[in-house]
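Propose amino acids for all 316 sites.
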């Protein structure tokens, strides 16, 4: 197994030793410090958030969530495309002692209504106005949600009983005090505590929620990491994330596996830009499904067909 980029080698035994996902993340952040962690393309250029910066954001956001009146075990719904804020919000929810409830960006108003009622979410985080469009009517009909938090600032309707907060305000606070509070809190979170509730997409009926514990996700990460280490080796890995983080597959393999491995995560801009993002990022690991290769093959063939007879002969 290769060496990590921090002060010590990342050990496979770390996954068994970690009591919860937040502790694993904070340990990695302490080891890797100012090394790049989360990447997103902004204004045409890839920009990174370091491990230390991400850890600071997670802890401050966690204390801000507690400041809103959220208590251990409360559900927080998360509706967003893959982006650095998704990872930070997910970890902050858990660091607050709450339960993350990721939802698909393709959900309808009816899907959101069901998830809000079924989970009993007291707060909702949404990325932008586009994704808020089917969510807001569901919130208006819901009687448990008390807070709406937005990554991007946009005009929201007057809910009356629901308070609206821009994400940037949740990231203001005293870093050292927030870290101490989070460490004290997660000392009481064990592997059998609920980390998140993952809902199905709803294509086969009403979305169904599956409770996932910290230990279950850590065990899956441990198994995947051991296969990678034993079969391929393990060095300074780069992940490219594009499958929805609201799905257990990407949530575990595309977020917590790279966290456990001390890897960098790049967030793809969109599916139609995936090929160019792969060329730019040159990831060493991607979490994929067979359909991706079918789509990419179809696009390659279509492009070749446009090139004429000579290109077609090269494919035969």
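Proposal:
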């Amino acid at each position: 197994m290769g060496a990590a980029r921090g002060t010590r080698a990342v050990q496979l035994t770390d996954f068994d030793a970690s009591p919860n996902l937040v502790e694993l993340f904070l340990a990695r952040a302490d080891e890797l410090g100012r090394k790049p962690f989360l990447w997103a393309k902004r204004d045409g250029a890839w920009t990174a958030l370091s491990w230390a910066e991400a850890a600071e954001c997670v802890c401050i956001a966690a204390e801000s969530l507690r400041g809103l009146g959220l208590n251990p075990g409360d559900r927080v719904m998360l509706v967003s495309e893959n982006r650095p804020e998704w990872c930070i919000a997910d970890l902050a929810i858990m660091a607050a002692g709450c339960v993350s409830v990721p939802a698909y960006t393709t959900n309808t108003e009816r899907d959101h209504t069901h998830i809000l009622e079924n989970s009993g979410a007291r707060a909702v985080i949404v990325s932008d106005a586009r994704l808020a469009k089917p969510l807001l009517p569901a919130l208006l009909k819901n009687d448990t949600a008390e807070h709406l938090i937005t990554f991007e600032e946009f005009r929201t309707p007057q809910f009356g009983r629901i308070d609206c907060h821009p994400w940037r305000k949740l990231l203001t606070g005293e870093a050292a005090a927030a870290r101490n509070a989070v460490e004290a809190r997660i000392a009481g979170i064990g592997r059998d505590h609920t980390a998140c509730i993952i809902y199905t997409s709803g294509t086969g009926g009403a979305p169904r929620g599956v409770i996932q514990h910290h230990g279950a996700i850590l065990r899956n990460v441990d198994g995947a990491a051991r296969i990678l280490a034993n079969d391929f080796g393990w060095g300074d890995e780069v992940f490219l994330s594009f499958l929805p983080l609201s799905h257990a597959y990407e949530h575990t393999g595309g977020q917590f596996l790279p966290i456990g491995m001390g890897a960098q995560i790049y967030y793809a801009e969109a599916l139609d830009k995936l090929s160019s993002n792969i060329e730019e990022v040159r990831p060493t690991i991607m979490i994929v499904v067979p359909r991706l290769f079918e789509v990419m093959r179809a696009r390659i063939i279509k492009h070749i067909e446009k090139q004429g007879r000579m290109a077609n002969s090269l494919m035969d």
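The two ends are 41 Å apart (CA to CA). The longest strand covers residues 36-42.
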